[in-house]
Amino acid sequence: MQIMNLFSTPIWKVELPLDNDVLIKKIKDFQKNTDSTSKSNIGGYQSNKSFDDKEFNESIINAISETTGLSGGYCIENWVNINGKGDKNKRHAHPIAFLSGVYYINVPKNSGVINFYDPRGICMSGMTDGNISINGFEPHSITPSNGMFLCFPSWLEHEVEENMTDEDRISISFNIETKSNATVVS
User: Which of 51, 91, 100, 131 maximizes the CB count within 10 A of its CB?
Assistant: First the structure.
């Protein structure tokens, strides 16, 4: 019997050689002048506007082009996440964008994994044979590390578990769009 796995969902993962110490300093300065908003975060800080750092944005666009093979002009909207002890991000998706992702700047041990959920959704709840619904109920977890860049289709549901440490987990999340009021990067 031939098995054809159709409609797989890619998650691109790469380590970026960015200076995270410099990014942390820029983010702390940015945070002083930028209010927090409440989107997917439960606790913590999530910036209410884009962290428009040209070097960072160009690095993200280059990483997307290199890892996905996509090229051309994009618009990027990003935001800073600072999650202290007990903070997390609830299950959500970014349906208005083309691609979404996250770059991890400071990830202490036990500060939470990112979980991705089966995009087939509720239809999988009726499947009782584990051979048919291969891992259809449990999320796929990725343990982030400093410098890790993840990119995925924006419709893919995900969450970030609670930070169990006394140290901040710092990341920059983003949406890539083909047109928007976001910062245009070619």
Answer: 100
